[in-house]
């Protein structure tokens, strides 16, 4: 692999900086607000079902989650919920949309080191405005030769990215925390992929299977990637 890689692409949320933890904190608060209508596990399950149902409409990101929370309030309360519930969730969501970025351990060091020998790409998905804000606030923008904010991360999406870069799949290494979104599609296209587990993962991104592929690397932390390059 070492002599083949020209481009290294990084996922952003929960690979370079903390993200899902804050979403889960918001969900816990949401469940607490609705505690008199339904137990927390039931509210959480209903929210997840609503998010998946609307994913093709809203896409990924916090704004879509907030819309799904409002819809869930209507369903859980049978349309009789206090409008202050909506007001409180919107306020909390707006706070999260302005939250400072916290880089994960080793990220600055690794990005800075790899930038000297490879073309670095940021390949993230989510709400356009929010992702642009986080990228700017991260202080990492200058290291990337290309930034792609994707609506999804399926094979066709990565194929378009490769075509834009003028890069063959076997010359790309993708680094990310989601087996489903960051690893499997790249391996299927013939590229290399390094999985960096994160301590919290959204249920939709969880993967129960085992990846066995000659182009697959599992890391304990992002700093270990330097041992393979």
Automatic annotation (TrEMBL):
- Identify a single GO molecular function assigned to this protein: phosphatase activity
| Entry protein name | HAD hydrolase, family IA
What are the UniProt keywords, alphabetically? Hydrolase, Magnesium, Metal-binding
Q: Which Pfam families match?
A: Hydrolase
**Quick check: keyword Metal-binding in the entry?**
yes
Keyword DNA repair belongs to the record? no
Query: What InterPro entries does the annotation carry?
Result: HAD-like_hydrolase, HAD-like_sf, HAD_sf, PGP-like_dom2
Q: Can you name the source organism?
A: Phocaeicola vulgatus CL09T03C04
Give the PANTHER family listed for this entry: GLYCERALDEHYDE 3-PHOSPHATE PHOSPHATASE, N-ACYLNEURAMINATE-9-PHOSPHATASE
């Amino acid at each position: 692999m070492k002599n083949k890689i020209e481009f290294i692409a990084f996922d952003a949320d929960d690979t370079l900086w903390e993200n899902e933890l804050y979403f889960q904190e918001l969900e816990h608060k949401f469940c607490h607000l609705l505690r008199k209508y339904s137990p927390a596990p039931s509210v959480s399950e209903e929210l997840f079902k609503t998010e998946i149902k609307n994913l093709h409409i809203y896409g990924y990101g916090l704004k879509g989650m907030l819309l799904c929370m409002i819809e869930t309030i209507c369903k859980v309360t049978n349309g009789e919920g206090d409008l202050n519930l909506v007001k409180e969730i919107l306020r909390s969501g707006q706070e999260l949309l302005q939250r400072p970025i916290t880089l994960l351990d080793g990220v600055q060091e690794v990005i800075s080191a790899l930038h000297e020998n490879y073309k670095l790409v940021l390949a993230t998905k989510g709400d356009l405005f929010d992702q642009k804000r986080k990228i700017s606030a991260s202080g990492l923008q200058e290291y990337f030769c290309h930034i792609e904010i994707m609506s999804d991360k399926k094979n066709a999406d990565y194929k378009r990215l490769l075509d834009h870069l003028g890069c063959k799949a076997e010359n790309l290494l993708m680094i990310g925390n989601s087996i489903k979104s960051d690893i499997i599609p790249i391996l299927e296209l013939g590229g290399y992929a390094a999985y960096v587990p994160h301590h919290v993962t959204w249920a939709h991104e969880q993967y129960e299977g085992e990846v066995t592929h000659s182009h697959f690397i599992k890391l304990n932390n992002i700093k270990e990637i330097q041992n393979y390059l």
